[in-house]
Amino acid sequence: MIDLAKEKETDGRAFPAEDGTGQGTMRKDAAAPSSVPGNESRTLAADFGKFKRYLLERFSPPPATADEIMKGKIAGLYALAANLGVKETDLSALIAEFLHLPHISDFNYGEVQTEALPLTFCRWNFVAPVTTKEGKIAYLISNPFDWELIDVLRKNTPAEQPLRLAVADPLYIRALIDQISESGDEEGSDHGKRASDQGAEEEEMPPVAMAVIEDIGPVSAADIEKRPVVHVSNNILYTAVMERASDIHIEPKDKETLVRYRIDGDLRDIFRLKRQTGAMVISRLKALAGLDIAERLKPQDGAVEVMLGKRTFKLRLATTSTPSGESLIIRILEPSAKPKELSELGMTSRQVRTMMEFATRRYGLILVVGPTGAGKTTTIYSFLSQVDTKTRSLISVEDPVEYRIPDANQQQVNEKAGVTFDALLRSSVRQDPDILYLGEIRDAFSARVSVDFASTGHMTISTLHTNNATTAIFRLERLGIAREVMAEALLGIVAQRLLKKLCPHCKRVVPITEGEKEILRPYTDELPEYTARPVGCPKCREGYHGREGIYEIIAFDQDLLERIRSGMPISEFREYIHRRGDYLISHHAVSKVKELLFPLQDVYEKVLVEEIQLTPKDEEIKVEEKEKADGRGKPAILVVEDDADNQLLITRILTAQGYDVATAGDGIDALMLLGKQEFDLILSDINMPNLDGFKFLEIMNQKGVQAPLMFLTARADEEDEVKGLELGALDYLKKPIKKDALLMRVKRALGRRAGT
What we know:
Blueprint: H1 4-11, H2 43-59, H3 63-71, H4 79-84, H5 88-99, H6 119-125, E1 127-131, E2 137-141, H7 147-155, E3 165-167, H8 170-183, H9 191-202, E4 210-213, H10 229-242, E5 247-252, E6 256-263, E7 266-274, H11 275-288, E8 300-308, E9 311-322, E10 325-333, H12 349-360, E11 364-369, H13 376-384, E12 394-398, E13 408-412, H14 421-428, E14 435-438, H15 444-455, E15 459-464, H16 469-478, H17 483-489, E16 490-502, E17 508-511, H18 514-520, E18 530-533, E19 544-555, H19 558-565, H20 570-579, H21 585-594, H22 600-606, H23 623-630, E20 636-640, H24 644-656, E21 660-664, H25 667-674, E22 681-685, H26 693-703, E23 709-713, H27 718-727, E24 731-734, H28 739-754
Parallel strand pairs: 2-3, 4-8, 11-15, 11-16, 12-13, 12-14, 14-15, 20-21, 20-22, 22-23, 23-24
Antiparallel strand pairs: 1-2, 5-6, 5-10, 6-7, 8-9, 9-10, 16-19, 17-18
Helix pairs in contact: 10-11, 15-17, 16-20, 17-19, 25-26
């Protein structure tokens, strides 16, 4: 139990006595007492405003920072620390000082009452129940202004006792909970033994289609190796579900096995296991799915449904052989989950109406396009839930079936059993379906069947891997579908992406810069005054929480179909769609930047750069004609440099030698220029605002820009130089710039490009 006397010596504070008096009494102007009675806890929210004004008086931050602080929400309490430039521990001490509550920073973890609250609840709400010297329950809490949490704690406290609170910073509470997890005290101390006993029995059992996963609970990275293999495997699955992971990667390396989760589209390192432990975990999980645990060289696929707590999940397993050993990828699905409403996916009200109109149509081809991991399948299942399948026959060909559709005949590809995609597709069109859903148009055959089926009075729904709605037309052309045939079938194309949402608890709202306004100006008539940026807090860790879709939905009317028949170039077709007022994916992304859901940097890199045509299309401009139109008789060089003095110096040196020089202040400005003209050579700084040199070169590579790039840098780091060269940089020129060295390197680079 906590020694209040010791706390009194170190912090000068103690938990309030039973009558609520003593050192724990509240300041006169504070709304929440130390012993919080019934309905008064909600007044803590009002006291949060007083606390923010207290911080402003104490720190006197600049006006812009002060404005951010006053706009901060209760849930983002510890984002105030970042704004003020103080540690979270220091902020928690200030909170305690303001409310006249104890501030706890050092005690034995054994004093936590593991029976008082579920540890999972404690972990996610940053609260720890502890025992006072008097033998009473008190709660360590990171956010005493959170009245909803306070109400839960009050209801969990015996009626005859006051609610006792003390403040600790969230990371400290999280570490405390992790220590409890490591001690083996959580949810029963016999977990380890039970897991060990079960392990010996279960390894002898034949593979099953359904497995109940027990002995689960939070497990720390430090403790993972101390548990039996069965327990380790189970908790890898459990932790993945708790962390909202879509996939688990178990990857052997030279000296260890790395366990990574894909969360919000990004892979994150979670556990590091010994090589032997990792191999045993993979064998255990393979056995659950009925895979051959002795076969480690040939790829294997399998699936199993598991019960984790009260929820059932479907796991899709895929193994492959690597030089370091067998690797395992697990996709996590929740089959019982109902499809989301279309409005829940992030669509605008207009886009939802368009999709609902598609659902009422009797024939036509609907394509859902986007890169891998863009959420296409989720959108299709949400759409199909709006289709009348009671009076219309729906047949699907999927690889694999991820979710069940009521009243639908869903067919799954099974190559091992000889049930191929083509065979299922051929048989499906003979089964008198009204609606055919193909998991993917993967080749010329599936493209032809999809279009033909839609052209004969049926509806076809499928996916393609393209970046936007208009390039899907070009993709169908590449698969052998003539424009005339295409125009007879197309009903609509839905292009989408998934972008990470900013964490609502810690995102930082800042005034928009002039450079950011220039980026947004082509996509909106009303420029915002503020944008938001990721910060990171205990609830999100990296500044993001969840993902949301951005969409481009094109409904093909006779006007658009006629332009497809005419053979209009794709770029012109897209420009026409834009001019007539259709809502492109870039506009939708920008609207969510204005709503402070996404950071502008992410939207620019993942969406807007694709609207910039960096390379001319053969169908639009012949090389000879472009050169003649540009009137270029001398090499064109682009200098990307944020330092005005260096930019001017380089420009003067190159111009004096007869070169045609253009300049840009950062990578974003440079991309804009690349969209307007070609360059024979690019000289780029590395450290630049908005978009640095490395990212700029990556985007150039993605867009197929052929101009050689030379880095200008004052950095002497060998790793940076290696990174640049690996990305495709032609050369490095160290600063300060020397005239002779610059001209020699430029001449050599241009000579290489000309082949001389």
